[in-house]
Amino acid sequence: MVRLTSITTRTGDDGQTSLADGTRVSKADARIVAQGSVDELNAAVGLAAAMGAAGVAGLLQRIQNDLFDLGADITVPDSAKTEQSLRMTARHIEALEQAVAEVNGRLQPLSSFVLPGGTVAAAHLHVARTIARRAERDVWALAAEAEINPLIGQYLNRVSDLLFVMARDANDGGRGDVLWVPGGADT
């Protein structure tokens, strides 16, 4: 169990922070940037849950918990990982793929690209989806300079897929999706 007794530590006031193994790095380090995007994603998922994404609150909470585990996987350099280190695994990805298939199975087929919007819950899920895509890009940028668990990027890719179908589900099973009309702004 984690116990936080002091929130203000002043240890980051010089633009440096610590990785989970104690290594000091710049707050602009690719590992910290990726972790920050994952943290932002987690907050956006929490907001979507709070905004009433009907019937998926438990799934969103599971994603939030997974994102904390994923963050731990990012912040511990591979060279410092132990058997007790939290790691993303194939089972995390398989669970997301099952959820995508389940939610997608109840949706109207797509006839166009979907514009982010519709209900308030769907709009928040779309925002979370775009943050997931950025977090994924940040993780792959980190992977270009440091060895990381490749399942981290795969997990974020599947999360964005799930958030997309959840947003469609929040738009009355896709019937309330706002569809892209090519050149529609000109008409």
From TrEMBL:
Residues 7-168 form the Cobalamin adenosyltransferase-like domain. Signal peptide: none annotated. Its EC number is 2.5.1.17. One of its GO terms (molecular function) is ATP binding. Keywords: ATP-binding, Cobalamin biosynthesis, Nucleotide-binding, Transferase. Residues 1-20 have a biased composition (Polar residues). It catalyses: 2 cob(II)alamin + reduced [electron-transfer flavoprotein] + 2 ATP = 2 adenosylcob(III)alamin + 2 triphosphate + oxidized [electron-transfer flavoprotein] + 3 H(+); 2 cob(II)yrinate a,c diamide + reduced [electron-transfer flavoprotein] + 2 ATP = 2 adenosylcob(III)yrinate a,c-diamide + 2 triphosphate + oxidized [electron-transfer flavoprotein] + 3 H(+). GO terms for biological process: cobalamin biosynthetic process. The keyword Repeat does not apply. Pathway: Cofactor biosynthesis; adenosylcobalamin biosynthesis; adenosylcobalamin from cob(II)yrinate a,c-diamide: step 2/7. It holds the Pfam family Cob_adeno_trans. Belongs to the Cob(I)alamin adenosyltransferase family. PANTHER family: CORRINOID ADENOSYLTRANSFERASE, CORRINOID ADENOSYLTRANSFERASE MMAB. This is Corrinoid adenosyltransferase. It comes from Pyruvatibacter mobilis.
